[in-house]
Structures are given as C-alpha cells and as structure tokens.
Q: What sequence folds into this?
C-alpha cells in the first residue's frame, strides 16, 4: 500500500516516534512524506521515503494531487490544531480530498496507531479503487 506521512512542526517528534514504533509495518509499504517530515523520519528509521516539497511550499498540494490521482491508500497527517498554519487552505483541501476519495486519514497519534495496526492486518482497503 502507499502511505503518506505528514506532520506540522509541533507534531514532528510524534510522527518520528510513531514511525520508529511501527517501522516493521511501514517497511512493507511505499512511503511518501512532505519534505521535512520525510527527512526526519528517514534519519531516525532508515526507511526509504519518497519526499515531496515542504508542506507550506506545495508539499500538501503534491500529496493532494496524489490522492486525486488515486495514488495513495492511507494518509497519516499529525496536525497541530492549536497553531495557525499559513498554508491552512492547502491543509483543508488535502483533508477534503481524503473524504472525497474515501482515503483513510489519521490526524492524531491515537488514530494513526489504529490505522497502522489495521494496515498490518490488511484491513485497509482503497474503496475508490475497488469501486465500493
């Protein structure tokens, strides 16, 4: 499966911790990430990650484009709901695309852990690809 990893600045350590904890699951999938998040996760885990631009520089839009083109199966986007983001319209568009194309989306550490365990058990299905 193709998995996107994204995290706002104040959530970078959380996504690193998540990737370290679930490295054995993530290593079996194709990973994508926005720029800084990808660099940090690769540095801590050694996992191969296809990096996009930084979120504020268009990375969120690149991930959104992949969703629209049916090239992703799961998005883990650890958002910081307490800090204003200069690229909030891009974030909102990405979240909306996940809803439009029925892409499973985790926006906090707890939901991400549930998604990763489901990924391990092959319970994640790209419903859009399957026509469900």
A:
């Amino acid at each position: 499966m193709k998995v996107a990893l994204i995290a706002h600045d104040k959530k970078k350590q959380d996504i690193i911790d998540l990737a370290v904890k679930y490295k054995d699951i993530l290593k079996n999938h194709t990973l994508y990430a926005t720029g800084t998040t990808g660099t940090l996760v690769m540095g801590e885990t050694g996992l191969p990650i296809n990096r996009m631009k930084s979120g504020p520089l268009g990375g969120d839009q690149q991930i959104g484009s992949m969703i629209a083109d049916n090239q992703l199966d799961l998005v883990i986007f650890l958002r910081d709901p307490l800090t204003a983001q200069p690229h909030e319209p891009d974030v909102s568009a990405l979240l909306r695309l996940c809803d439009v194309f029925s892409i499973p989306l985790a926006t906090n550490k707890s939901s991400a852990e549930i998604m990763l365990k489901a990924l391990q058990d092959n319970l994640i299905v790209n419903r859009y690809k399957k026509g469900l």
The chain has a mean pLDDT of 93. The chain has one domain: 2-130. The two ends are 17 Å apart (CA to CA).
